[in-house]
Design goal:
about 200 residues; mainly alpha; 10 helices
Length: about 200
């Protein structure tokens, strides 16, 4: 049950329907082979970056002398901004639409895997989660849920053509806004927890 909860948390942190909308817009002039290759590279790139940040976050925190609660509150603010953007606005992808297949594949990791799929708010949240999990069995279970979520996104992108035919762009955009609402709840929880802990420590 806990693994499922972690999987769903990671899935929504990766803003799947926003990523799907951007992917569809950027690849509407590409052939199926390019879209499939791009989907696999995005899933692989996002997985590698997320795993690196999750396990290396503690070292980064010690290097810069940042407390877990301060980082939790800061990441919550970033996540809340992402949620607001998902609900009220959309990123422009006009500059990416007319790229060739080779250019799209070259850009699979940056910007498609990072920061479009795994953005700064997501990576900040991963650092906090990595610090909260002390036992290695918990860390490995969380990492497994994270990788599964990344490859679920990849699977959605792989079958993006089918999804857009079945759901349509309007429903996908609506689901993206619902994702924003879920992220806002996660963000507010992180902010409250972080600020409360900092306030208690300072008192």
């Amino acid at each position: 049950m806990q693994l499922l909860q972690q999987y769903l948390t990671f899935f929504f942190l990766l803003t799947p329907f926003f990523v799907l909308s951007v992917f569809i817009s950027m690849t509407e002039e590409s052939d199926m082979k390019t879209r499939h290759s791009l989907a696999v590279r995005i899933a692989l790139g996002a997985s590698c970056v997320c795993i690196t940040i999750f396990f290396g976050g503690a070292w980064l925190m010690k290097l810069f002398g940042i407390t877990v609660d301060a980082f939790r509150a800061g990441s919550g603010v970033l996540l809340l901004l992402v949620a607001i953007k998902l609900v009220y606005g959309e990123d422009s992808v006009e500059q990416q639409r007319h790229k060739t297949s080779a250019e799209l594949l070259r850009d699979a990791v940056v910007p498609l895997a990072v920061p479009i799929t795994a953005g700064p708010a997501t990576l900040g949240t991963l650092i906090v989660m990595g610090l909260e999990k002390n036992a290695w069995n918990e860390k490995l279970a969380t990492a497994a849920a994270m990788v599964l979520a990344c490859w679920t996104i990849g699977l959605m992108l792989f079958f993006s053509g089918v999804i857009v035919r079945v759901l349509g762009r309007t429903i996908i955009a609506m689901l993206g806004k619902i994702t924003g609402l879920i992220l806002s709840a996660i963000a507010v929880s992180m902010i409250i927890t972080g600020v409360h802990a900092l306030w208690t420590a300072a008192a």
